[in-house]
What we know:
The chain contains 6 helices and 8 strands. It is α+β, with helices and mostly antiparallel strands.
Amino acid sequence: MALTNYTDLQAAIASWMVRSDLTSVIPDFITLFEATANRRLRVRQQETVGTITMSSGVGTVPTDYLAWKRMTWPGSTVMQLEYVHPDWRRAAYPTQPSGVPKVWTIEGSSIITSPYDTNNTSLNFLYYAKVPALATTNWLMTAHPDLYLFGSLVEAQAYVLDAEKAVLWKARRDELFDEIEKLDARTRGPSAPRIMGVVV
């Protein structure tokens, strides 16, 4: 059986469960797995560069945001902004002065910089984005269909109250999470060490 898209995945879940009466809830199993994946995964394929529109030093956190990596002010001199705790920013900049931004923080759904740029220059935001909800396919389904299947089976077995099988699939799912994280670490740098100087 092919396992490349949402339809294939639903059919595979029903087949592995040996159940034909779960059609209406199988999408829930997939959604619940995706929620788990978004709490666990922080890999290269999730890295996204977004543009944050600013107004008086305030912008909006992207709807698919999970965790930040870098915030850049691309003004006259490009600046990598330093992340600070919201309370630190308020104490350091109680009057929110204008000027070249130096620090940034997140409060609720807002991104705030201090000082604030009166030109409202948009920021470049490198962050980890959520795995896109599976409609047809996405990068995670393409790269790791086994994770989608075993992760969804954990939720399916919990639904039918089969604790023994739920534990089995959870162990397999978590093993795959670990493998994917290790693979990500290995593929971020060169596959062989760089040797300086003359090699004899």
